[in-house]
Amino acid sequence: MKFTWFHLMPYRFLPEDFKEKYRSVWVDIPRNLYDPKVGHRLYNDYLDQLEYADAMGYDGLGVNEHHQNAYGMMPSPNLMAASLTRRTRNANLVVLGNSIALYNPPIRVAEEFAMLDVMSGGRLIAGFPVGTSMDDNFCYGAVPATLREKYYEAHDLIVKAWKEREMFSFNGKYTQLRYVNLWPRPIQQPHPPIWIPGGGSVETYDFCADHDYQYSFLSYFGYIAGKKVADGYWEVMSKKGKEMNPYSMGFAQVVAVSETDKQAEKDYAPHMDYFYNRCLHVYQGFADAPGYRTVKTIKAGMLGQVGDRAAMRREGLSWNDFVEQGYVIAGSPQTVRERLREAMKMLNCGHLMLLMQIGSMPPELVRKNTQLFATEVMPFMRDLWSDFEDRWSPKRLPQNEIATPAAVHFESKTTNGTAARSGVSQEVRSAK
Amino acid sequence: MNTTVKVLNGKFSIEMQTFGSGGEPLLYLHGAGGNTGIEGFLEELGKDFKVYAPHFPGYGESTGNEHIDDVIDAALFYHQLMDELGIPAANIVGHSMGGMLAAEIAALDVHRAKKLLLASPAGFWLDANPIPDFFAAQLDEIGALLFHDPKSPMAQMMTAIPEDFKALETMYVERVKRLATASKFLWPIPDRGLKKRAYRIQSPTLVVWGESDRLIPPVYAREFTSRIKGSKLETIKQAGHMLMYEQPEAFVKTVRNFIKG
User: Which residue from B136, B177, B188 is facing A286, i.e. has the nearest CB?
Assistant: First the structure.
């Protein structure tokens, strides 16, 4: 079993009456709700949290791309991943991912991912989401009817750019390039592992199965609701005669560990409420642009996780409901171990994407959650799926070929003139 | 009468209504919402003209949507359809998105439109008068955007939300199919460069607008009348964006007078 510590990077200070006053957390959220000074502190906190997760032995650090969104402040996850290359050593960088249909030309993604792979010594996992309707259609203006075709073409170009040994020309419908000549090229050959984050579109199952890509279901609804999607994926895999290898699937789950079940409620309940009622408050009109989902997917009953329909399912849920319905796996380490094992077996999932900073959770609580999980839960789940080979994780450079940043023993002056030592290396060392 | 027309040996299969048997040909191009089978004004026009009302590829039973990427493809598709129908030139009436395409048909080949009537056409964007985002509008918000009087029986009928889940799903899927097609010409902003081509339109042109159009405000009429030489504007009272549904008699009269005049 492998564990990725996944950050959404939410804005933690939306007003109490956000839901009543504004129609959406995404696309047309008023800009005056964002304070850049607060943003500065949050990015710093969040990078700390990811670096701490690396030190605590998580297998991967996850970041993703959203636009004009108060629960996901990463228009460019690549910037975050680049920051992480310097101060993390072990964890894979799971960039899940770049919405490749939005990049013009998409070769930009091949370049930046190559840079990240080289900078990190081959620790990159390359995620290619179609992207949400909010991001692609409403924020970035992509025409819904042609989005998927554009996505597939961008994918073909990027993968070819990584694989080809010679310069080539690309005559696509959306992108034409006379000279495709990737420089730099990735460390991992022929390319970093490709993970496809999905939201329940049935076409994505086929796409993953046909290309041997890992399918990651980034759900906020938890494992019980997620079973339908997982079953759909495995059904396609089985029909196509593919190996039912749990590592070919990832699943995102909110996990909250505390000393006892009761304490977990006390610690985390307000932040769950913030997440589900403020962060996921999305205007229904942005949830599904006409043509974003194919008719096949709509008929399969796969509607989105945001908007009114999703909110209706969550309306009036108490902490106990959230726990019982699997939105969150929470409680004492013992409880979390049991439920998580059950959940992963139910989904046949080998790559767990842990959402451990949720909504308004402050740094101390994130640290507690991260630490308790790493020490009290993770070791007890490592044995799961040990019979299977994980073919979807990076093949990094051997340790003796890894370049390391120079030591940070400089003294820096703070504004009031007192010397402050950079606490970075100390903290990481003490965490190990 | 309902017919199916195969265009380019079946590359496109087009569902089409025809009305009337005599008179000059009149090609009617529907808006983004499509024809829904309650187009009484077309039947009425059939008394004076031979009316052809094709469903655009992706609408109704019409296929071949995948062969059309942009307004140029769409206009050339119509040129081909007109040739195969044996009406290489016709009076063309287009509503909303259909008005935008009608203007393109006439601009790209000056011999196609004998007379051109554009009813609340799309095709332009004014920063000072942004067009509301119809694609993001919810089912219960559409009435107010489309109709002068959203409470009128016609408006109520056209915007009814079915209670039955199966019927709602069918309606949702239909809406998705139609608007996805429309997104090729209208998303995210309904301007595909008509401003560069409109000067080519040489046929007599009438622009018709619903006085209380809240989707494409009447101020947009000037974008057409100022660019199309000799064109005139007529406004229909107590009508919104769906003018021909709200005021069918006034609309039919306007069309008849313009084409026969």
Answer: B136
Q: Kindly report, residue by residue over B134-171, the tens digit of the pLDDT.
A: 999 988 899 999 999 999 999 999 999 888 888 888 88
Q: Does A290 touch chain B (CB under 8 A)?
A: yes
Yes or no, beta carbons of B138 and A138 under 8 Å apart: no
- Determine contact: B177 vs chain A, CB below 8 A: yes
Range of the domain at A383: 2-431
Indicate the residue type of A358.
I
In this complex, is the C-beta atom of B126 within 8 Å of any C-beta atom belonging to chain A?
no
CB-based contact A63:A73 (threshold 8 Å): no
Interface test with B, best of A295, A308, A312 (most B CBs within 10 A): A295
Contact check, Cβ <8 Å, B183/A138: no
Classify residue A43 by burial, with Cβ atoms within 10 Å: 0-12, 13-18, 19+: middle
pLDDT: which is higher, A155 or A418: A155
| E strand intervals along chain B | 2-7, 12-19, 25-29, 50-54, 90-95, 113-119, 205-210, 232-236
Point out the residue among A173, A290, A299 whose CB comes nearest to the CB of B180. A290
Q: How confident is the model at residue A332 (pLDDT cuts 50, 70, 90)?
A: very high
From CA B2, how far away is CA B19, in angstroms rounded? 9
Domain residue ranges of chain B, discontinuous segments joined by +: 2-260
State the CB neighbour count (10 A cutoff) for residue A118: 17
Number of domains in chain A: 1
Chain A residues near residue B183 by CB distance under 8 angstroms: 143-145, 289-291
CATH number of B2-260: 3.40.50.1820
| Per-residue confidence (pLDDT) for residue A432, from 0 to 100 | 40
Q: What local confidence, expressed as pLDDT, does residue A429 receive? A: 45
pLDDT band at A153 (very low <50, low <70, confident <90, very high): very high
Nearest neighbour of B183 by CB, restricted to A144, A286, A299: A144
CA dihedral over A178, A184, A189, A194, signed as positive or negative: negative
